[in-house]
Design goal:
Blueprint lengths: L1 H91 L13 H14 L3 E8 L27 E4 L11 E2 L17 H9 L11 E2 L3 E2 L6 E11 L2 E11 H16 L4 E5 L5 E4 L18 H9 L4 E5 L4 E8 L8 E8 H4 L1 H98 L4 H70 L5 H68 L4 H54 L6
Antiparallel strand pairs: 1-2, 1-7, 2-3, 4-6, 5-6, 6-7, 8-9, 8-12, 10-11, 11-12
Helix pairs in contact: 1-4, 1-7, 1-9, 1-10, 7-8, 7-10, 8-9, 9-10
């Protein structure tokens, strides 16, 4: 029964401890998994943002670089047009003496334009267009000479362009549509290259005169779309004409396709858009060149143009296409009409690195979960082994203390039984002494009547006195044993107090350890909640053990106190018996005196009667003390039985050594 209870208690400790370990391990694994998932989400978010920023920076950088490359192409043409414009302005500039600063005729102008075209392979055309009579007032002479670059107006309008082989003809063609306000296929006026700079500086009402980059257009009779860099010829705020250089859009298209391949391996879009929203280059869809950009962008071009004029890049996310678009302005010379480079790329390309990293983090999370599970199982196994070891270590000292307590209670009970037996023996001896004294009184009475038998009675009295002395010696010896037993009881009580003190110290140390465990579990927070419950239960058991040890110690102290009182009574009894022994010696002397001197018989009898009365009184006192001693012995025996019951109760809880 006891063994089953002990085994049940051990199993409960191990089972509850194992459950706590499993719960804690699961909580730790869950916390670790949650932490890993949070870290993965955080890293993915941060990396996505970093990749977004990095991609935007790369896009802005590459778009800016592309913008600079395109601007440089336009700047070359624009700079050449500026130089020609400044040269032709010298034709109208007069010196102080009224002579022209530069004397150039129409052939000289054609030579300059042709030479400029020949020295720049990137140019496909050079031209100039003067107002009627603005060059030399002889327009009528050249009227209708188309073979040398004139139309029916006779104005100076030479157009030098390369043929299909890239060669320059001997004579220029005349410009066409230079004053035609009809809209072309791209949505701009056919004569935009001339009308626009003219409109910007018409007559004497001088406006802000700027250079111009004309939106993509197709010249009459030509197959290719071109753009033109135009600079007005102005002298003293008067507009005389223009100088222009045509650039083929195919060069810009090649630049856009190359950039697309370098950046996205052909998976993105690089688009060049003119000031009025006409596509000048498209890396993926070359057939869109010359078409309005409104077909490929979500918002209106004018909304973006406002920001581009400020020099600010425009970034937007096109949800319908799941792509990111970046617009970077192209400021060309002093035109004030910026173009733009549009770079578009699918969002998954930007987030490709983030997706790869997210997949890698997921793999790492699964590996961490597997490792945490293995570690958790190992912790549970080790914890169960430690709980088994700890339960054995805890029950061992408690059993030893209970064993010592049970042994001490048995010793006290044995000593109490001996004291009770001695008290009973003493009471019986007193009864015998009372009977003997009654016989002595009877003999003395008879002696007073029968003097003859004095000697015989004296001899009998002498014999009785000897027996009385022997009884007193025997009583003294018994009392010495009783005193020795009482001292042994006192020593056993002291040893029992030491054992109880040891139990109390063990309970204190156990309570201290449980407090430390509670503190550590509190530091661990929710992860240590389960272990805190175990620590609280251990602390409760330690407090109960301390209370039991304190109660047992108090009981033993009371028992020792009563033992000391019993020892005091024993000393009194021993003293009384010693006095009886002395009185017995006196009685022997009296009997001897009776035997030796018959004449003093009466006096001796009187003295014997007096002595017998005193002995009778002492015997009665001794009997009373023996009764009190017996009562004390019974009380001590009851206390020993109570201690034994307490030891048995504690033994029932943990079992005996044999059961263990």
């Amino acid at each position: 029964m006891m063994s089953l209870r002990l085994q049940t208690m051990r199993k409960q400790i191990v089972v509850y401890g194992a459950i706590c370990l499993v719960v804690v391990s699961c909580m730790l694994i869950g916390t670790g998994l949650n932490y890993s998932d949070s870290q993965q989400k955080f890293v993915k978010k941060e990396v996505t943002e970093i990749l977004h920023d990095a991609a935007f920076q790369i896009l802005i950088s590459r778009a800016s670089a592309e913008s600079d490359r395109i601007r440089q192409k336009f700047e070359v043409a624009l700079q050449a047009a500026r130089s020609l414009s400044h040269t032709f302005e010298g034709i109208k500039t007069e010196k102080e003496n009224g002579e022209k600063l530069i004397e150039i005729d129409r052939d000289g102008v054609n030579g300059i334009l042709k030479n400029t075209l020949r020295k720049n392979d990137q140019f496909i055309s050079t031209y100039t267009c003067w107002e009627s009579g603005a060059f030399d007032d002889i327009d009528l002479i050249f009227k209708g000479m188309a073979q040398i670059g004139y139309d029916n107006s006779g104005r100076l309008i030479p157009f030098w362009t390369r043929n299909s082989n890239g060669d320059i003809p001997e004579n220029p063609e005349p410009l066409t549509d230079y004053e035609n306000e009809e809209l072309s296929e791209t949505g701009i006026r056919k004569g935009e290259y001339y009308l626009r700079p003219k409109d910007m500086s018409s007559g004497s009402q001088t406006k802000v005169i700027r250079e111009c980059i004309i939106d993509p257009f197709r010249r009459t009779g030509k197959d290719k779309l071109v753009t033109s860099a135009v600079v007005p010829v102005i002298y003293r705020k008067k507009f005389y004409g223009i100088v222009g250089i045509d650039l083929a859009l195919e060069h810009i298209q090649e630049m856009a396709a190359k950039t697309d391949q370098e950046l996205f391996e052909g998976n993105g879009d690089v688009i060049v858009i003119s000031h009025n929203g006409i596509i000048a280059a498209h890396s993926q869809l070359p057939d869109h060149i010359g078409k309005p950009a409104g077909k490929i962008i979500q918002a209106t071009w004018n909304e973006k143009l406002e920001n581009l004029r400020k020099g600010d890049p425009v970034i937007e996310f096109e949800a319908s296409r799941n792509q990111i678009s970046l617009y970077v302005p192209i400021f060309i010379g002093q035109t004030g009409t910026p173009w733009a480079v549009l770079i578009r790329m699918p969002k998954e390309i930007i987030l490709h690195s983030a997706t790869v990293l997210d997949n890698d983090l997921r793999d790492r999370t699964r590996d961490n979960l597997r490792q945490q599970t293995i570690i958790g199982i190992g912790v549970i196994v080790i914890g169960v082994i430690m709980l088994l070891f700890l339960s054995a270590r805890i029950s061992g000292p408690i059993w030893q203390a209970v064993y010592d307590l049970d042994k001490g209670a048995g010793d006290i009970a044995s000593a109490s039984s001996q004291i009770s037996y001695s008290a009973q023996t003493l009471a019986e001896s007193n009864s015998e002494l009372v009977v003997s004294m009654e016989d002595i009184s009877s003999i003395l009475n008879r002696t007073s009547a029968i003097a003859r038998q004095n000697a015989e009675y004296s001899n009998k009295s002498d014999s009785i006195a000897r027996e009385s002395a022997q009884t007193c010696h025997e009583a003294t010896r018994i009392m010495e044993k009783l005193i020795t037993s009482m001292n042994q009881i006192a020593e056993a009580g002291s040893e029992t107090q030491k054992i109880i003190k040891t139990i109390d110290e063990i309970a204190f140390q156990t309570n201290l350890l449980s407090l430390n465990a509670a503190v550590e579990s509190a530091r661990a927070g929710e992860a240590g909640a389960g272990f805190s419950v175990v620590a609280s239960e251990v602390r409760g058991l330690a407090m109960k053990a301390a209370d039991a040890a304190q109660n047992t110690g108090e009981l033993i102290r009371n028992t020792l106190k009563e033992v000391k009182e019993g020892a005091e009574f024993v000393r009194l009894v021993n003293k009384t018996i010693s006095q009886i022994a002395v009185e017995s010696e006196k009685m022997k002397e009296l009997v001897a005196s009776i035997a030796s001197a018959s004449e003093d018989q009466s006096e001796g009898i009187d003295r014997i009667n007096n002595t017998a009365d005193q002995i009778n009184l002492k015997i009665r006192q001794n009997s009373t003390s023996a009764e009190e001693f017996a009562a004390t012995s019974q009380e001590l025996n009851a206390q020993a039985e109570h201690m034994t019951k307490s030891a048995v109760t504690l033994t029932v809880l943990i079992g005996t050594k044999k059961e263990l």
